[in-house]
Amino acid sequence: MQLDFFPSRTLTFYLARQFTTRIFGVLIMLVLVLQMLDLLSESGDILAHPGNGEAQLWTYVSLRAPQLIARFLPYSVLLATILTLATLNQNSEVIAMKAAGLSAHQVLAPLLISAALVSAISFGFNERVVTRSTATLKAWEANEWGTIPTQSAVRNNVYLSDGNNILMAKTVSGSNDGLVMEGVTWYRRDSRMMVAETLTAARATFAKPGWKLEKPSRFDAQTTAVTALPDTVIAKDVTVRQVELTNINPDGQDVFTLTRTINALRESGRQTSELEGNWWHRFAGPLSAMLMPLLGATAAFGLARSGQLLIRAVIGMALGFAYFVIDNAALAIGNFGGYPPLVAGWAPFLLFLLIGETVLVRTEE
User: Fold this and answer.
1) H or E element at residue 241
2) What pTM, to 2 d.p., does this model score?
3) Which of 4, 248, 272, 278 has the fewest CB atoms within 10 Å, i.e. the most exposed one?
């Protein structure tokens, strides 16, 4: 019986149902509260743009909610683990299961399987929904809550060097020769690197070579005069390839697009450690949900009448939150080159997997 992790079909479905119900209940509660707080902080800026109203607020909610769900799903699994196991312990259900011959791993097995399913759903949700909403939201925010971008692979605040000159764009959308820049500013600098003139335009397209500014306005730094110009081609040395590899937002790309981006940057001789760390974390991050039942398992065992149930629940919660802290710290250190990308992405998960298993075996098995 000790080798059968699901000795009772009825018990397995009972524990899984209790666990998954609490996961989604806690998640809905967290997302609703955090979404309201976030909307309160951003609604003023959104409504300040002419023409924006209630529809734009709902659009913001639809774009922001997937990010909140992805970020706080592992926290919801942790809290659901504590609630489920503490309730089972309080009602002496864990004692009954252990008296029937079940080991600690058999008690946790339905929760681990449920968490594994949540991890798989989380990965698919992140890749198909969160990446797209993140890219759109960042581009919309860069556009100062004006027109909502409809193009895919939108990048914002692109900064390019054109010899001594500087080319900037609020947003860049499209791909290959169909790249379109919006909110474009071109600074021409003299030999002393001082700005001699500035050209601004609402839109620029690739001119093969160079970038054609549509009806730009020219500001002369010496005379302070502003004049309107016809369509003008600038930055002939700036290629489409350079623009596509500038200011990449890994959170707005799915894992396949990010793979191609990393390969392109590596071929051009650019540093890719930050993007590689993010790539590895795309897999380790969703798996953190599977780790939570193991870290919160201390709340399941021990006599409730001993008065230590609250202490055990706090220990389980502390282990879970310690994982999130160390995971974020490792990813940040990896972005600065302190850890190899593989270590930054996977080391916290493997470390706390060993810690959780060690605590469970030494205290309950």
Assistant:
1) helix 240-244
2) 0.80
3) 4
Query: Could you give the CA distance from residue 319 to residue 255 in angstroms, rounded to a whole number?
Result: 29
Q: Is 226 helix (H, G, I), strand (E, B) or coil?
A: strand
**Domain boundaries along the sequence of the chain:** 9-144+274-364, 155-252
Separation between Cα atoms, residue 188 and residue 193, nearest integer Å? 9
Pair of tokens at residue 297:
């398992």
Amino acid identity at 85: L
CB 295 within 8 A of CB 320: yes
Do 132 and 83 meet the contact criterion of CB atoms below 8 Å apart? no
Which tokens is 255 given? 């894992």
Nearest Cα to Cα of residue 324 among 297, 351, 303, 358? 351
Return all residues near 164 (Cβ < 8 A) that are at least 6 apart: 189, 190, 191, 193
Residue 1's pLDDT band (cuts 50, 70, 90): very low
State the alpha helices, DSSP H only, in 49-92.
54-90
d(CA 296, CA 360): 10
Q: State the number of CA atoms in the 13 A half-sphere of 329 facing the CB.
A: 7
As a whole number of Å, the CA-based R_g of the chain is 27
State residue 286's pLDDT score. Answer: 93
DSSP string, 220-254: ETTT--EEE---EEE-TT--HHHHHTSS--GGGS-
Fold assignment, 155-252: lipopolysaccharide transport protein A fold (2.60.450)
The residue type of 302 is: G
